Give the backbone structure.
Amino acid sequence: MAIEKIFKDDATEEKGERARMSSFVGAIAITDLVKTTLGPKGMDKILQSTGRGHGVTVTNDGATILKSLHIDNPAAKVLIDISKVQDDEVGDGTTSVVVLAGELLREAEKLVASKIHPMTIISGYRMAAECARNALLQRVVDNKENAEKFKSDLMKIAKTTLSSKILSQDKEHFAQLAVEAVMRLKGSTNLEAIQIIKKPGGSLKDSFLDEGFILDKKIGLGQPKRIENAKILVANTAMDTDKVKIYGARVRVDSMSKVAEIEGAEKEKMREKVQKIIAHGINCFVNRQLIYNFPEELFADAGILAIEHADFDGIERLALVTGGEIASTFDNPESVKIGHCKLIEEIMIGEDKLIHFSGVEMGQACTIVLRGASHHVLDEAERSLHDALCVLSQTVNDTRVLLGGGWPEMVMAKEVDELARKTPGKKSHAIEAFSRALVAIPTIIADNAGLDSADLVAQLRAAHHTEGCNAGIDVISGSVGDMAELGISESFKVKQAVLLSATEAAEMILRVDEIITCAPRQREDRM
Amino acid sequence: MAAVTAAQPRSSKTESYVDNKRKEDIRQANIKAARAVADAVRTSLGPKGMDKMISTANGEVIITNDGATILNKMEVLQPAAKMLVDLSKSQDAAAGDGTTTVVVIAGALLKQCLLLLTNGIHPTVISDALHKASTKAVDVLTAMAVPLELSDRESLIKSASTSLNSKVVSQYSTLLAPLAVDSVLSVVDPEKPEMVDLRDIKIVKKLGGTVDDTELVKGLVFDKKASHAAGGPTRMENAKIAVIQFQISPPKTDIEQSIVVSDYTQMDRILKEERNYILGMIKKIKATGCNVLLIQKSILRDAVTDLSLHYLAKAKIMVIKDVERDDIEFITKTLNCLPIANIEHFRAEKLGHADLVEEVSLGDGKIVKVTGIKDMGRTTTVLIRGSNQLVIDEAERSLHDALCVVRCLVSKRFLIAGGGAPEIELSRQLGAWSKVLHGMEGYCVRSFAEALEVIPYTLAENAGLNPIAIVTELRNRHAQGEINAGINVRKGQITNILEENVVQPLLVSTSAITLATECVRMILKIDDIVNVR
């Protein structure tokens, strides 16, 4: 401390052992927070917002929990970031990745304590990760050729993903929904085309998949409630009056009749605009902005279904699925692409009337209507379903499939253990530690289910000593079971992403030997 | 709890033990909070349940017996307690009635869960068992239910009056129950018999008189006066009604405009022009034979001016102004007419026809009634009267519940006995079923069965009867096979409740049980409360 004042006031610096300790503690604290949500018997968390309204979210989704946390520890932030990346990349395994990274760090902590250099640990981890990945690659099943089998694979994956979520009781039903929705996409990972609508009331079982698109809007007054072979123009234009948008523009007149004339002219302008829109040869007009009474009546007279005030998301999707584009000028009917669909009708879900577009241009499009007891249930159901959809769409592209229930971890752990035995030098300790971290995942799954994890994992390890074993933890019966028979599968892509990004994150945190916290920006009103 | 959080050690050796302690604490805190909410509404259950007086933040006072309303106004903060409030809302949306029941059941289930948890059963095991039990319960209820035909008006009225009997307005149930049934039946579309949109039933509240004066109006009722300016007509037979969305007032452009008056003579001219302009519009209206105008409220400019009202009165046109835009759809549907947004489009075919439009004095105000509408749409209006605002509001809520009950029956045509009979039967059957189950599951299902007894217990308690005597007696009767034996609160004894005409829709019971179970399972699964942004 010879030179003081390198940094600004309030800036702090932590060095060497202290810095590493603080990273470890932060990362492990985060891991402990989310690890109880892992697995089919994982628990949920209430997220209570400290902001206005004290909103409450109940969730089991690692990414959602981590995203909303207040975190001041830099290492913990790294973990949150990898969970976010995992969410964006593959959509599922957001908890697993954080837990694995945390376990790796926990092991590393012990190694560092026994005087092994972090760099040695890192290179050991790298070797172990490579080895684990190869172990998985050897055991993957790829049913790309066999459509029938592949579909059943998808069903299994969907069920496995959903079994750890709120939808677990109705996983059969929702797995079916998710697989059908993803199969419609025909290989594209554009989840935009799958619309999820949440309607409170009913129970989760009443949720259903509907082809086409549902818009949560009402049909204008006096207009047809059902249109076949609809031609749809999607627009974002002001339908009150085309105001002269020059600041301070005003007209000066000297008599009432002139005012009336101007008013008439404004009306006439509107009428022309409506005529132009009608001239597109459409029978359905969807506008993002309000449609006032006057044009609404004109549309009604022309027998056109006009929908006002559709939200941004709504019209973009609508334009996408009906194959139209969003128009804002109507002078060239030829240049505007008009959307098509076979049937527009009003349907009733729960207490609300919605507009259903079926037989749309983009055949992939479909809508999943979620029903549930409350908003909490619905929000959580949406997150769960989203996870399932993500995983499935990834699996459609990368058709390699693994078994689940702690099976991949055990397979990897076994290979990594063998590698440790073959490797000379201090690295072998790190490799061994890696295998211990892998085994931690089945341990946590068992712990969360209230099972005797030590016993189960020991049994599992013994079972895995035989070649070609399918043993994993059967949480429901609380014993070691055959995962292939139980139909518990996971996508290879998810597992690989978990493995690689967790290792990377652990490596990154391990490398740190100094933390410099900059002086916080001064703010007048702290929360 | 703060002490536990602080004591949480960072070393990995002892952590698992302390962690579990914290989780147990959170779970217990959640359950306690949720039960506190349930206890708050418990006394309002049943025909002899008490009401609650709520004084809201803005000084308003509400007296109600409706569980959903009480919970809604309670402004709870604890997250688990909030979930119970939401639960009651969902029941309101799903079935409309039984909003207290659902919360009371959830509270009882939580109480049992706490016991199971302290016995060391894993929450997910309890949760799964509850789910199984609730599925089974729905099966049992469905088996108990009695099918119903929509033509069976008597049964419909019976179930509506069961719902009304627990409300403040119970003494009027003989009047309100048939009213609710008739109004729902009149909006059922024969093409889609399963769908009832309660928005097609408009409820108009008017102070004065008593609830006895509440009536069903085949037509429209506006809680407004007809315009009296310049002695316009207030009664019109053979009315031709136009719903207009434009304004009868001096023109106003969207562009800012100003009229430049440079000398005295111009002023006169402008006034004259204004008069001519309005007169022109009114002539066009008159030409179509229209004699009643409903004018939509406008925020941009005056919908009508004194001048135009004067001319309309001269032209013998009755005017009702300030109709809300949201009401336009209902009005046009009822009158079977189209709204007119521009004077140019004012054509005779857009008008609606009614035999009589008249202004009626009621209590301290006046309303306008439109009756004898030609080709009336499938809508109906209920005019609620009451001696004070609190009674009227409560009557509206009660009527809404009754309407929902009838709607439930329309969409799911099964009736079930009331008076605690289904719950005690469920409890008995599930209790028997639990004996054939293995392991923890059987134990949990038995607790579920016991929890359901809370309904008859509370009913008896609220009626001032001896709950234990009543519940044991009920069990006894049910064990002897009288599955419809229930508590007759009026007589204070146990009778065959179906014969007493105490019936309720199956949907209310099943949805109460499934929703309560779903909510309890969610609370069970929570092991931490995290403060976030």
About this structure: Chain A has a mean pLDDT of 81. The longest strand of chain A covers residues 339-349. Residues 167 and 465 of chain A are 35 Å apart (CA to CA).
